[in-house]
């Protein structure tokens, strides 16, 4: 299975734009990519925008990266998906349904990015006996690694190490750290974090997505995205660059 889950160290760190950028970058080196969002909150069933005029995450990805992006369940309140489902009085996203949605679109010749909601321990829904599940559980079900999108500013060392430790405890591989909202003129904290993050987490920083990247038009976004990531890492995750014998196993 060629699946990569994408989480954030918190909400608002640039996870959606980072997922779009990875998809665009993979396509720029000859690969194929798409994004699946199992649970979207803050939007009604037919809403194109929320109360603040923002688009749903899948629509943002499709607009920026010009790739296929699909949603699973939608819940109207801008909360964690399980909480939003309970408040709406509807059945939460089911763990088996979330995995089935990803598998429906997974192909050996395409990278399927699975965008979570907020941080890695946010409750996405429940399993068949009502136990909450998170993106960690979904990644384990899919045999997928998890990419962590982190804020580059002060405080990220703690947030990112907590996230990577949870992945390690669960036995889910971490595919790298991407810094979202990287400033045009990084300060002392950002520059130190760039060096300190690999040391504190044991996970490499594989990309930096510039602050404001989500405001670019699709042509510019797709043209620039490749330069935001480590070239060797991009080649490693792109199905187009892997021979059948070199592709990661489902448990990788």
| Broad CATH class | Alpha Beta
Low-confidence stretches: 242-252
In helices, the fraction of residues equals: 25-40%
Pattern of helices and strands: EHEHEHEHEEEHEHEHEHH
Q: Helices and strands: which structural class? A: alpha/beta
- In DSSP terms (H or I, runs of 4 or more residues), the helix count works out at 9
CATH topology: Rossmann fold
What is the radius of gyration?
17 Å
Report the average pLDDT across residues. Answer: 94
What's the short version?
By secondary structure, the protein is α/β, with parallel strands linked by helices. It is built from 9 helices and 10 strands. Helix 2 links the parallel strand 2 and strand 3.
List the helices and strands and how they pair.
Elements: E1 3-8, H1 15-28, E2 33-41, H2 57-65, E3 69-75, H3 81-88, E4 93-94, H4 95-105, E5 111-119, E6 125-126, E7 132-133, H5 135-142, E8 145-150, H6 156-170, E9 174-182, H7 188-201, E10 205-210, H8 218-225, H9 231-237
Parallel strand pairs: 1-5, 1-8, 2-3, 2-5, 4-6, 8-9, 9-10
Antiparallel strand pairs: 6-7
Helix pairs in contact: 1-2, 1-8, 4-5, 6-7
